[in-house]
Amino acid sequence: xxxxxxxxxxxxxxxxxxxxxxxxxxxxxxxxxxxxxxxxxxxxxxxxxxxxxxxxxxxxxxxxxxxxxxxxxxxxxxxxxxxxxxxxxxxxxxxxxxxxxxxxxxxxxxxxxxxxxxxxxxxxxxxxxxxxxxxxxxxxxxxxxxxxxxxxxxxxxxxxxxxxxxxxxxxxxxxxxxxxxxxxxxxxxxxxxxxxxxxxxxxxxxxxxxxxxxxxxxxxxxxxxxxxxxxxxxxxxxxxxxxxxxxxxxxxxxxxxxxxxxxxxxxxxxxxxxxxxxxxxxxxxxxxxxxxxxxxxxxxxxxxxxxxxxxxxxxxxxxxxxxxxxxxxxxxxxxxxxxxxxxxxxxxxxxxxxxxxxxxxxxxxxxxxxxxxxxxxxxxxxxxxxxxxxxxxxxxxxxxxxxxxxxxxxxxxxxxxxxxxxxxxxxxxxxxxxxxxxxxxxxxxxxxxxxxxxxxxxxxxxxxxxxxxxxxxx
Length: 474
Prior knowledge:
Low-confidence stretches: none
Mean pLDDT: 92
Strand content: 15-25%
Number of helices: 11
Largest sheet: 8 strands, antiparallel
Shape: globular
Helix content: 25-40%
Radius of gyration: 27 Å
């Protein structure tokens, strides 16, 4: 729903920009073409045209765009603070209004001496640029922090639902914007300074977790962006909101029981969501001709050489596995599923005696706010981290029992809701099967839709996955 609203508002804003371009004596379609649009803006505002190249530089491109954009607004006589604020925050309202107002006209190059004399304004150019940069920084930070933010998919853990090279928008509004917990930070950097490295934030001021009201609660099987919980540990020791962003599917809600048997997810004893475009890895056995790596590359099938002649490990969907099985030289295609009762290192809660692995584990009850768990040798490995690291308690095992914050306890009542996150690429995903629960204060937002998708193996126009542009995420 929200990506439809966003698309409509984007169209309305571009409609206003189209008509403003026409008022300035340009072709309306020029307002719709990225990079060329900014080139035209530079022409209309008297800026050096070479600065358009800087749009390719991350972070710098934000300043360049808003500098040109606010200059264009000034060319139509809109120089007051509220007009600049409205142009950045609600362009879908003010641009169409100005475009259809006969009193709003293109006055000329706002950076020319003639313009400055005819439409005298006391601010110097340096002051105007400084104001524009400060305002754009504040506005963009507020938008990224409280409304919507762009992300890029760097790994294949959600394939094929999401692909490496997908650029997507994540809504902060759906689940409610999280108030920044470490507000002193370098603009547009998450946790590391660009170029120089080092921390991009200060822990001088740390605020408690608080989330503003949202439009909805998290729903089972939503695709969610969250902060990676394990970065609470050394060597990172990062505050919650500065931990790395991960994207997975929320397959388990607070209070649910989750388990897996032979790579099939169960939630509360019933089969859980099976992503239609999800992947497993398969063992493919061929005759002596082997697999043609060019074909595998063209079909974007991730293939690993097992070191054994004519035996390959291939990550693919069930439909793709059926296709490969039909090839003349393929003898066998078998899902590479771990056996029940075999311990796999790295499986939560890291107790070898359980003999759990990523395909066979559980059941595990996900903590919910207000739920009380009895503390014993069976539950402690599952919930100790949540009690200590995520909820900030001191837990001690003494000879006469368990102590929480110095008080003997045989139970604990949770203060937060927790979630179970898993990647759709079930055999190529680091997720809750490896590190357990995701606390509610780590939730960043809901993935809405891809606005661009680039294929690293493509070239020219084929590098763009056109069928994924504005594709909703389900």
